[in-house]
Amino acid sequence: MRGFSNLYGSRKFKGASALALIIALANASGALAQTTATQDSSRQDAAEGTGDQSEVVVTGSRIERAGFNQPTPTTVIGDTELRLGARPNIQQVLNDSPQFRPTTTPQVSVGNTSSGTAPVDLRGLGSDRTLTLINGRRFVGANNLNFVPLGLVDRAEVVTGGASAAYGSGAVAGVVNIILKKNLEGLAVGASSGISSRGDGARYGADATYGTSFADGAGHFMIGAEYLDDKGISDRNSRKNLGSAALLALDPAFPKRQTRVRDVNTNPYGTYYTPGGLITSGVLAGQTFNQDGTLRPFDAPNARGVGGSDARGLYDDVAVALPVQRINAYARASYDVGGATFWIDGTYGRSHVNDGKFLPDYLASAPITISAANPFLSQAIRSRLTAAGQSGFTFMRDYNDIYNLQFDALRTTYEGAIGVDGKLGSGIKYAAHYSHGEVVATQRLKNATFFPQFNNAINAVRNASGNIVCAINADASTTNDDAACAPLNPFGPNNASAAALAYTRGTEYSHTVSKLDSADVHVQADLFSLWAGPITGLLGAEARWEEVVATNGALDKKAAFGGFSLYTSPVSGGFNVKEGYGELAVPVLDATAVKLDLNGAARYSDYSTSGGIWSWKYGGTVRFFGDLMLRATRSRDIRSPNVGDLFAVRSLSIGPVVDRDTANRPPTPPYNSAPTLVSTYRGGNPDLVPEIGKTLTFGGSYSPSFIPRLSVSVDYYDIKINGAIATLSGSDLSAACAAGNAAACDRVIRDPVSQTITQVFANAQNIASFKTRGIDFEASYLVPLSQLSSHIPGSLRIRALATHVDRVIFSTGAATPINVAGDVGETVTNGTPKWRGTLSFSYQTDRLGLDARVRYVGGGKFNQLLDGRIPSPGAPANVTLLNNDISARTYVDLGAQFKVNDRFTFFGNIANLFDRDPPISTAGPIHYDAIGTYFTFGARVKF
C-alpha cells in the first residue's frame, strides 16, 4: 500500500493543507441554497420524452415543446457518472462511457504534440466527427474539453446519431452537449489530492463556484473556477508491460512466427545502446562507459534483443503520462426583462504541459566513428587502441541525459458570448447569440539537436596549446572554422559541458492563434394544429468565421534541427460559412394506446472554401400505452474541413507501423514488417471538400408502468461516411503503394538497405471511407429502499451501459478493406473492442453516499493482419503473431461521500481497485488502463 504511505507521508503537506483550508472554511458562517436540476433518472426520461412533459431542451433537437418525443437516441451523463472515478476533466468522464473511444488521453499522447489536449471521439470515427457544445452552442478550442470547469457541469447529453441538420458540421458521429449549471446560489469550495498505488502520479486540485441573484430575482450571476496540478508519471517501467516491447521471431528457424515480447532493448538502428555509450567494433567492442569515463563489460540482451540491464529501448525513456497544470474559469450574468432573458458569459482557460518527456532524440544516437585520438578518451583506452592498431571504433549511445526532447505546450483560451432567449406570447420562442473566442498555443520542443553542430562538436582534438577543441578549429589554415563550437564529451552520462550543450542543441518553437466567431438566431412557433396537436416549426440562421495564424521560430524556418524539425512550415488561413436551417415536429396520432410523432430537419451550408451543401434528418417515434416507445431516424450529415485540416502546421508523431507492402523485401532480419519507431509527418490541404455521412438509427425504450423508475433502451446504429477526410497512416499508405499508387509510394520512406519503413509523409485528403455499426444498450433502476423495508434508509440506483460494435471499416480503396472491430492493438487504425460496458451501483442517504462501478473492456486480436491467415493483398505474408489474442479487462471503481453536516462533505475514490495490468503493447495501450490503482481524497464545503 505504498500509495497510502506516500499520501500521508511525503505528500502530506499539500494534501493536508488543502483539507485544512476546507475545514477552516467550513467553520465560517453562511448557508448554501443551491437549486439543482432533476435527478439522473428523470433527466433520462426527459431525454426520452417520458418525464413530466415539462418543456426541456433535448440535444437531439432544437425544438422545445412539452411532450415532444425526439427520435434521436440520447444518453445522459449525470451527477453519479461525474463523480465516479474522480476523473480530472469531463473528457475522461465521457471516455468511461462505452460509446467513446479513448483516442487521445494523457497515457496515449506521450511522444505526440496532442499532449495537453482533451478531445472526445464518439464511435471511434475521430474526434473531428464528434461535435462538442456548451449549453447548445459551439466553443473555440476544437473539442478540447480541458477548458470546461468540471465543478460547473450539470450533465452531458450524448446524441448517438447524426445531428448535422440541427447543429451543422461535425456531428457525423453525434453530439456531446455539456450543460452547465444555471440557477446556482451560494458559495462552494472543494479541494482534492490523488496518488497512485505506486506512489507516483500525484494530482492536486481545487475548485470554487459562486452564484447569487440580484434585482429582486430578475438577475443572476455565477462564476466557477478550478485548478489542477497533475505531476504525471515519468517511469514506464514502473508498470508491467509498458516498457519497450516489440514483435519478435523468438525462433530463428521460423522468422514468420512472431511474439509480443516485453523488455526488448534494440534501438532503431538494429543494435543496442546504453546511456553511457557502447563501443560496437574493434578490440573494445562490447564495452560501455561508466560516468567517470572508464569501461566495463556491457550487460547485453540475449540474441533476440531481450533483457540486458545496460541496454535501453526507446519507450524506456518515454513517460507514462505527461505533467500538466490547468486553470479554468467561467462566469455568466443574466437579466430577465419581460419575456426575455439577456445574458453574457465569459470563459478563460490555461493548460500547460510543463517540460514533459517527449522522447530521446534517437537520430543523434545513430552509429558514429570515434577517433582513437579523441582527447576525452582516457589514456588507458587510447593505449589499448594503439596497441591493437586501431584508428578508431564505432560508437552508439542513448542520449537520454542531454538530448532528451522535452515538450512544453502552453494553451490559453479566451471566449465571450452575448445572447437573448425569450418568448412572444404563448406560442413563439426565439434565441440569438454571438460569440468570439481565441486559443493561443505556444509549443516548444526543448533539447532538440543541431546536427551539423553536433557532428562538429563530437569530433574533438587537442590543439597546439594542448587544449581540447573542435577539430574544425584546430588548424588555423582551414576556412570552415566555427568560433562557437565547443567540444562534446559523449563518454559516460552527464559529462557534456554546458558550452557543448549550448552549441549543439536548441528549442523548436511554434506560436498559433486560433479564432472562432459564431452567430446564431432561430425562432420557434406553433404553426397550426392537427387532430393530434400543433405542428411546431423552427427556422434559424447561423454564421461562423474560423481563422488560424501561426508563426515559427527563426531557427525552425531554417530547418536548423534536421530530423526532428516539427515547425518548419507555418501556415495561416481561415474560412467562413453561412447557414440556414429549419425543423418540424408533427404529431400524427395521440390516442389512449398509441402516440405517433414525426420529426424532420434540414440545413443548407455555404462554405467560402467549397461552396454549398445540404444536410437533413427525418424520423419518428411511436409510443404504446405510455410504456414502450419505438424510434427511428435517417440522416445525411456533413463534416467540413476545419482550419486544421486545411492549413495545419506540420506535426510529428512517433509510433509503430505495420508494413502492408512486403513483396520482394529482404529476408527478416534485416527487414522488419512491423517497425515500432516510425516518424509520421502530417499537414493540411486547402483543397478539401466536406465529407458526407449517412446514418440510420432505430430502437426503442421501455419504462413499464408496473415497475416505476425502471427504464431499458436498445438502439441500433449504422454510419457510412464517403469522401472522409483522413491523414493516412503508414500502414494504409504502404497498402496503397502495394496496389500501385505511385504517390503513396513517394510518401513512405524506407531504409535503403533493410527496406524497413523509417518515415511517413502524409496530409489530409478526401480519400477515405468509414463504415461502422453496432448496438447500444442502457438500463437504469432507482429503488427507494424503504419499499423493501421501512428500516432501510436511502435509495439504490443501478445503471448499465453497453455497446457492441459489429463493424468498423476504414478504407482508402487501396486494398481490401478490413473490419477492425475486435482489433485492440495500438498499431491498428480505428481498432476498437467489440464490447464495452459499465455497471454502476449508487447508494444514497442524507449523510452517506456509496458508489461502485464495474468497467468492462473487451479483448480481441492485437492485429488480425498478423493472424497468419488473412489472404488480403496488404497483409504481411504468412506472418503469425503467436500471442495475438488479448484478453478482456474488468476494472472496479469505488467511491464514497460522507456529509458531516449540511455544509461539509468528505469524499474518496479508488479507481482500478484490483490494479489490472495492461496488455503488452509496443507503444502504450489505447483501450486499457495504464496507470493502475489510483486513490483520490478530498473535501467540499458549501456556504
Explain what this protein looks like in three dimensions:
The chain folds into two domains: 2-237 and 321-357 and 407-445 and 510-942, TonB-dependent receptor, beta-barrel domain (Maltoporin, Chain A), CATH 2.40.170.20; 238-318 and 363-388 and 457-505, no CATH class. Helix content is 10%, strand content 44%. The strands form eight sheets. It has a 22-stranded antiparallel beta barrel, surrounded by four helices. A four-stranded mixed β-sheet has the order 1-3-4-2.
Keywords:
2 domains, four-stranded mixed sheet, 42 strands, mainly beta, 943 residues, Maltoporin, Chain A, single chain, 22-stranded antiparallel beta barrel, elongated
How are the SSEs ordered, and which strands pair?
Layout: H1 2-7, H2 12-26, H3 40-48, E1 74-77, H4 79-83, H5 90-95, E2 130-134, E3 153-159, H6 164-167, E4 174-180, E5 186-196, E6 203-214, E7 219-230, E8 245-248, E9 257-262, E10 278-279, E11 287-289, E12 295-297, E13 324-337, E14 340-360, E15 368-371, H7 379-387, E16 392-396, E17 404-424, E18 428-449, H8 451-458, E19 460-462, E20 468-470, H9 471-474, H10 498-504, E21 505-530, E22 533-552, H11 554-557, E23 573-590, E24 594-607, E25 611-624, E26 628-639, H12 643-647, E27 651-655, E28 678-682, E29 691-702, E30 710-727, H13 730-738, H14 742-746, E31 748-750, E32 757-761, E33 764-784, E34 795-811, E35 835-844, E36 848-857, E37 860-861, E38 880-881, E39 885-886, E40 889-899, E41 904-911, E42 934-942
Parallel strand pairs: 2-4, 9-38, 28-32
Antiparallel strand pairs: 1-3, 3-4, 5-6, 5-42, 6-7, 7-13, 8-9, 10-16, 11-12, 13-14, 14-17, 15-16, 17-18, 18-21, 19-20, 21-22, 22-23, 23-24, 24-25, 25-26, 26-29, 27-28, 29-30, 30-33, 31-32, 33-34, 34-35, 35-36, 36-40, 37-39, 40-41, 41-42
